[in-house]
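note to self — DONT lose this again. spent like an hour looking for the file last time. sequence + predicted structure for the chain T wanted, 122 res
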Amino acid sequence: MKRELLLLIPLLLLSLTVVFGAEEPRGEKVEVRLSEYAVEMPQTLPAGPATFLVRNEGRKNHSFKIEGPGIDQMLEAVVRPHETGSLQVTLQPGEYKVYCPIGSHAAKGMTMKLVVGEKREE
């Protein structure tokens, strides 16, 4: 009986990974730091897949939203102080608005423009 349970553990872990979306970051990895009331990240990126790795370095809850060519997405959950979240998107060339969609945070300065250029040659 114990042996059968030990054999099921890898399957259980794999299913939890799929259910909770704990997949490997893909494409460009973009570090984002949120605080009161600022968004710190690169202002330019290449087109293509990108994973935004969002860390809340502030004392209040924050989130992360990106709007632009073909994209209007945000983190699924609020990022509590000193915690992280991630968002995967495929960026097209153009201009994007990046901001914290919580309350008046964007109006207080938690917003920026992201410019996406052509895809990098590999």
